[in-house]
Write a structure and sequence with these properties.
Elements (H helix, E strand, L loop, with lengths): L1 H20 L2 H19 L4 H16 L7 H14 L18 H38 L2 H4 L5
Helix pairs in contact: 2-3, 2-4
């Protein structure tokens, strides 16, 4: 009897976990999300409106407790377009907009960090010069500073 209950429990657990583990709605959502994105772009819509429509659909279809990130949704669309090249051959040119130029972003971040560093160094230099000026002013008496006292 104990063995029958264990087998029943295992089968019940397997029956619950299997649909969760092999969730095909995620594949269908990303496939249809790619279709939405590519069709809208091919129809002349801009990147933002096409992306928002596809991302909203994928996010809605995913369901569950946690929502999908924009980065993951973009990756799913890219994977679908690459996997189904024959179906989405017109869409490959639009994929670069899903993944912004990371090299350019890194260069902009480096430039911003460099500017912040320069501003901080300039501020420190000004403080140091002001401190030196105060020390120099303290060294001179009032008499030595008057121009016409000879």
């Amino acid at each position: 009897m104990q063995g029958f209950k264990q087998k029943k429990l295992i089968l019940l657990t397997f029956g619950i976990i299997t649909p969760i583990a092999f969730n095909t709605s995620k594949l269908n959502a990303s496939s249809f999300g790619a279709e939405i994105f590519c069709t809208m772009r091919d129809g002349g819509n801009d990147h933002e409106s096409s992306w928002e429509a596809a991302y909203t659909y994928i996010k809605k279809q995913k369901g569950g407790f946690f929502k999908i990130s924009p980065k993951n949704a973009a990756a799913q669309i890219t994977e679908t377009v690459i996997r189904e090249r024959e179906k989405f051959n017109y869409c490959v040119e639009y994929l670069d907009n899903l993944h912004p130029n990371r090299k350019l972003i890194r260069e902009l971040e480096k430039e911003e960090a460099r500017k912040e560093k320069e501003a901080k160094e300039k501020e420190n230099k000004i403080k140091r010069l002001e401190k030196e000026l105060e020390e120099t002013n303290e060294e001179f008496s009032e008499e030595t500073l008057e121009r016409y006292s000879y």
